[in-house]
UniProtKB/TrEMBL annotation:
It comes from Flavobacterium sinopsychrotolerans. InterPro entries: Rossmann-like_a/b/a_fold, USP_A, UspA. Residues 2-118 form the UspA domain. It comes from the Bacteria. This is Nucleotide-binding universal stress protein, UspA family. SUPFAM superfamilies: Adenine nucleotide alpha hydrolases-like (SSF52402).
Length: 119
């Protein structure tokens, strides 16, 4: 089984991670944890040589480590990978799910866009 878990670091994401961790999953289940940041036009014009992507990757790295630990502690047989993607969350999640060959997509999000989340 392949599960794509889209997270944003919110309490809803943590709930989704715990739900997966507490379920009896088939052996060798793969969980791909994805975080998508929405690139805004203004930021794109100010982003020098991919620095913004590196920033989001570093920020999400810590959240990923926590999610991986929870999943592996509950079910060591899980195969867990992580990635940070720039783009529209809806499109990026669906595209990655197709590329990954996901059987299940789980979205743990509070539903705020980049500007709402900022404020």
């Amino acid at each position: 089984m392949k599960i794509l878990l889209a997270t944003d670091g919110s309490k809803y994401s943590k709930t989704a991670i715990n739900e997966i961790a507490n379920r009896p999953l088939p052996p060798k289940t793969e969980v791909c944890i994805v975080s998508v940041y929405e690139r805004m036009l203004l930021i794109n014009t100010l982003e020098p040589m991919g620095v913004l992507h590196e920033y989001y990757t570093e920020v999400d790295h810590n959240a990923f480590k926590g999610a991986e630990k929870i999943l592996r502690d509950k079910n060591p047989a899980l195969i867990v990978t992580t990635m940070v993607i720039g783009g529209s969350p809806k499109s990026a999640i669906l595209k990655e799910a197709e590329t990954f060959g996901a059987d299940l997509i789980i979205v743990g999000s509070h539903g705020h866009g980049a500007i709402e989340g900022f404020f």
